[in-house]
Amino acid sequence: MRATARSFASLGALATVQPGYPSRGSICSDPSGTHLILQGRDVHGEAGVIIDQAARFHPERNTEIYQVTRGDILMVARGQDHRVHHIEQALTNTLAGATFYIVRPDSRRVRPGYLAWWLKLPGVQAELDACSRGTNIAYVSRKTIEGLQVPLPPLPVQERIEGAVYLWRTRKSLQSRIDAKREQYIRTVCRQAIERSKER
């Protein structure tokens, strides 16, 4: 049966949801490590994954199910902010840490960019927040995520939404870089002005 704009499917039917790499304690960073691990600090808003900040380490267990790359979606599992990040670059020997759930969409049914966009919607975030558990640090269960009912427009519509979101994010990222360069320039000019005033 062809999907229509009003079709829905559970997220668990559209993607696998896998907890991130569990560690027995703090990750011991080692420059000679065989793998990189993404933690909360390595994923930022519109900038996405900042791979050069990720810790390198030697995994203690099989890494296959924890490795992430282009097309995967990371969702923060704990806390009040269930941020969602669509990985858009190819990654090698890179694991997602226990901070995240790894969502791997079946691209034959749902486009990763569309699913990530939908998961970020305020209504979906509010639903996740309402289902969070825990007394100290709230967390959202895998069962809750898998049970979310995802609207499924036809794939061409999903692709258009995915493309529009990508262009919007690219524009925001470029603007952010321009603003950072402008701020750096202003600071340099002001510093030079102060130095010149001291020479007089």
Keywords summarizing the entry:
alpha+beta; about 200 residues; Adenine-n6-DNA-methyltransferase TaqI, Chain A, domain 2; about 35% helix; 3-stranded mixed sheet
Account of the 3D structure:
- The chain has 200 residues and is α+β, with helices and mostly antiparallel strands.
- 36% of the residues lie in helices and 19% in strands.
- The chain is globular and about 70 Å long.
Compile the SSE list and pairings:
Elements: E1 8-10, H1 11-14, E2 15-19, E3 35-38, E4 43-44, E5 48-49, E6 55-57, E7 73-76, E8 84-86, E9 94-96, E10 100-105, H2 112-120, H3 122-130, H4 142-147, E11 149-151, H5 155-199
Parallel strand pairs: 3-9
Antiparallel strand pairs: 1-11, 2-10, 3-6, 4-5, 7-8, 7-10
Short description:
This protein has 200 residues and is α+β, with helices and mostly antiparallel strands. It has one domain (8-199): Adenine-n6-DNA-methyltransferase TaqI, Chain A, domain 2 (Alpha-Beta Complex). The protein has helices at residues 11-14, 112-120, 122-130, 142-147, 155-199, and strands at 8-10, 15-19, 35-38, 43-44, 48-49, 55-57, 73-76, 84-86, 94-96, 100-105, 149-151.
